[in-house]
């Protein structure tokens, strides 16, 4: 009996307990890391398909149940120069060799977090086709009104620029007049979200964003 007691105490020592705990942790870490590595390609593929679906949706080309890759074949990604000297992507919806519309990535601060989306513009560079956000942290029931189809539909056909060529598209407080070319209905209870959307859209269609590129489209279309 006396010989076995020290052995039992040795097996239950703090050192052994720590050794077992560290060993289990290392094994779990290896398993988790291996799973992450194996799943990464699938995650990237899913993220890419999600981005493509949003682009198709804002362009009015998404068809539920249809193959995303087949639909996305009508989209031509390009890089354009910004005033900052940086390059940014645009996504062109092509009809043969002609540009039908252009999809612009837009982002900016909302009430709680950054908002990320796409703005669809007619090939005249002046008229909105749609606005669709795919990532934001706006308040459910208030700021998330930007996801409602009825609100998003208002963007179609709105003019982006005023007679002076400056961005004029605006989300107003309350309801926009039916005959307004530049105004979108406000978001009840989400004034700061509305301001954020107005600011980010005006920035990205302005001189520091895609404004010069849109002007090239307008010049080409008016010839």
Give your account of this protein's structure.
The structure is a single chain. The protein has helices spanning 4-11, 14-58, 68-72, 149-152, 191-205, 211-222, and strands at residues 75-81, 87-95, 98-109, 114-122, 128-135, 170-171, 183-184. The strands form two sheets. It has a five-stranded antiparallel sheet. A two-stranded parallel ribbon has the order 6-7. The mean pLDDT is 87. The radius of gyration is 26 Å and the shape is globular. It has two domains: 1-72, no CATH class; 74-222, no CATH class. The chain has 223 residues and is α+β, with helices and mostly antiparallel strands.
List keywords for this structure.
223 residues; alpha+beta; 5-stranded antiparallel beta sheet; two-stranded parallel sheet; 7 strands; 22% strand
Short description:
This protein has 223 residues and is of the alpha+beta class. Helices cover 40% and strands 22% of the residues.
Give the secondary structure arrangement, pairings included.
Layout: H1 4-11, H2 14-58, H3 68-72, E1 75-81, E2 87-95, E3 98-109, E4 114-122, E5 128-135, H4 149-152, E6 170-171, E7 183-184, H5 191-205, H6 211-222
Parallel strand pairs: 6-7
Antiparallel strand pairs: 1-2, 2-3, 3-4, 4-5
């Amino acid at each position: 009996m006396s010989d076995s007691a020290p052995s039992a105490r040795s097996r239950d020592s703090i050192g052994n307990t720590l050794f077992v705990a560290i060993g289990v942790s290392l094994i779990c870490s290896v398993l988790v890391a291996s799973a992450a590595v194996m799943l990464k390609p699938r995650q990237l593929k899913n993220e890419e398909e999600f981005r493509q679906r949003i682009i198709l949706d804002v362009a009015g080309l998404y068809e539920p149940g249809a193959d995303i890759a087949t639909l996305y074949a009508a989209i031509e990604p390009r890089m354009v120069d910004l005033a900052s000297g940086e390059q940014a992507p645009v996504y062109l919806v092509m009809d043969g060799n002609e540009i039908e519309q252009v999809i612009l990535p837009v982002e900016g601060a909302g009430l709680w977090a950054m908002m990320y989306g796409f703005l669809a513009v007619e090939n005249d560079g002046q008229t909105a086709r749609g606005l669709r956000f795919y990532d934001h942290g706006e308040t459910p029931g208030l700021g998330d009104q930007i996801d409602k189809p009825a609100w998003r539909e208002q963007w179609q056909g709105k003019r982006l620029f005023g007679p002076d060529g400056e961005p004029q598209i605006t989300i107003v407080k309350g309801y926009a007049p039916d005959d307004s070319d530049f105004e979108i209905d406000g978001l009840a209870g989400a004034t700061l979200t509305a301001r954020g959307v107005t600011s980010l859209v005006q920035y990205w269609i302005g001189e520091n964003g895609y404004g010069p590129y849109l002007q090239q489209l307008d010049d080409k279309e008016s010839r």
